[in-house]
Amino acid sequence: MKKRVLVVSSANMDFVQRMRRVPNAGETIVESAEYGYGYVPGGKGANSAVAFARMGDDCVFCTRLGADANGDRLLSVYQKEGIDTRFAVRDKEAATGLASILVEEDGTNRILVYPGANERLNEEDVEEAFTCYPDAVYLQFEIPDEPVLAAAKFAAEKNIPLFVDAGPARADYPLDQLGRVEIFSPNETETKIFTGIDPNSAENCLRAAIKLAGMVDAKYIVIKLGGRGAFLYDGKYYHIIPSISVPVADTTAAGDTFTAALIHFYLDGVPMVDAVHLANCAAAIGVSRPGAYTSIPTIKEVLAFADRHPR
Ligand code: RIB
């Protein structure tokens, strides 16, 4: 049966510029036209919502969009993807979130987010969204603490499993207030911000995971390691599940795709190590394509790719 996943998170329009390399401070680069730029729907929450929908889940998206042209475009994309947008509030006071994304030739990105309406998502919005009777709740930190912690509180009260993609990170984030989390998944940078440990080796991944386990009450910690794969820790044992090497076009939204795919397969009863491998497959497809939501694969594509790249 389809699982209903409530995503409480951000929505942005991404302004994406491609370039050979990012300019240095004080430098102007006139890039050749072949690199190009574009406006692509993005936002960590929206990317994950699209990923859940493409995995075949019943996705409900609680977010805030401005009452502007970007908001109109994003809403129509979500509706075309089959996402339930009843709790996507149109905010008359703030513009739709905007992310400026610089993508270099090797796919590396740098992202600066202007939060706009995302900053106005609040506890009442979240309370309203919980009337959809979700089977699972999914959070990220690209919105204020108030709606994140409210969603965690409602999930605990209603005994609904909670999943957290821990980005963007902040060293003083109140992780202890999240309560019980099924899967807590930061990337390398976020892990370093939370723990002060760079997960650049298996030993350091384990040290960081143990430290995280002392900060957040999580059943599983999954550290996304980009091209190196993912580190899975269950409080006792750890596994390193390697990524699948593909030509990289753009890494934007790879983490959002990974975490949503991981949760999808976990909720489907797939053993955790296999679920992480399938999430690696989803991320590999994602990085081989440009853009945020444009890069996210369907479940059919993920399973076909996994057939060609078994664990
Ligand atoms: O994770 C990628 C996303 O981060 C981009 O789509 C951008 O909007 C920022 O939120």
What descriptive keywords fit this protein?
binds alpha-D-ribofuranose, alpha/beta, 24% strand, four-stranded mixed β-sheet, 311 residues
Summarize the structure.
The protein has 311 residues and is α/β, with parallel strands linked by helices. Helices cover 34% and strands 24% of the residues. Alpha-D-ribofuranose (RIB) binds at residues 10, 12, 14, 42-44, 47, 99, 111, 113, 142, 252-253, 255-256, 292.
Identify the CATH homologous superfamily: Ribokinase
Side by side, the strands of the main sheet go: 5-4-1-8-9-10-11-12-13
**What percentage of residues falls in helices of 4 or more residues?**
25-40%
Total domains: 1
Q: Spans of 5+ residues with little confidence (pLDDT < 50)? A: none
Structural class category: alpha/beta
Ligand list: alpha-D-ribofuranose
* Main sheet overview: 9 strands, mixed
The count of helical stretches stands at: 9
The span between the termini is: 26 Å
Description:
By secondary structure, the chain is α/β, with parallel strands linked by helices. The chain has a single domain, classed as UDP-N-acetylmuramoyl-L-alanine:D-glutamate ligase (3-Layer(aba) Sandwich). Helix content is 34%, strand content 24%. The chain is built from nine helices and 13 strands. The chain has a nine-stranded mixed sheet, sandwiched between helices. The chain has a four-stranded mixed sheet with strand order 3-2-6-7. A hairpin with a 5-residue loop joins strand 11 and strand 12. The chain is globular, with a radius of gyration of 18 Å. The two termini are 26 Å apart. The mean pLDDT is 96. It binds alpha-D-ribofuranose.
